[in-house]
Amino acid sequence: MKKVEVITRPEVFKELRDNLYSIGIGGMTVTEAAGTGKQKGVEGLFRGTTFEIKVLPKLKIEVVVDDEQVEEVVEVIQKTCNTGSVGDGKIFIIPVEEAIRIRTGEHGKQAII
Ligand SMILES: Nc1ncnc2c1ncn2[C@@H]1O[C@H](COP(=O)(O)OP(=O)(O)OP(=O)(O)O)[C@@H](O)[C@H]1O
Ligand SMILES: [Mg+2]
């Protein structure tokens, strides 16, 4: 299993959520986040020397899926979140050792579908 973690613009969330559910994911976690990428919040140079690092509002969406679904999930995210402008976000893929559904005690794949 892998955790696919997306940090992206809040505006795309509804479409992303719908597109992810339409390919059959079992759930997701959404967290309000703030961050910067390469552009450092687009504050840039100030009087040639100092610059302020600003954080911009983002959403972090985490989806745990079976290894064989990772590629499809990444494709959906790229298609949905790519506006072509800086700040579209990042996708991180993290190995997940185990998943357990608390109510039933199901483990692994059974726990995430
Ligand atoms: N290396 C990183 N580690 C952790 N979080 C990151 C990293 N890079 C970006 N982020 C998070 O992703 C958000 C969006 O990043 P962003 O899309 O601006 O990345 P970028 O590398 O500057 O690419 P772009 O040139 O498309 O803007 C940031 O606000 C931050 O929350
Ligand atoms: Mg950026």
TrEMBL record:
One function term, GO molecular function aspect: enzyme regulator activity
GO cellular component, one term: cytosol
GO BP: regulation of nitrogen utilization
Family: Belongs to the P(II) protein family.
UniProt name for this protein: P-II family nitrogen regulator
Lineage, broadest ranks: Bacteria, Bacillati, Bacillota, Bacilli, Bacillales
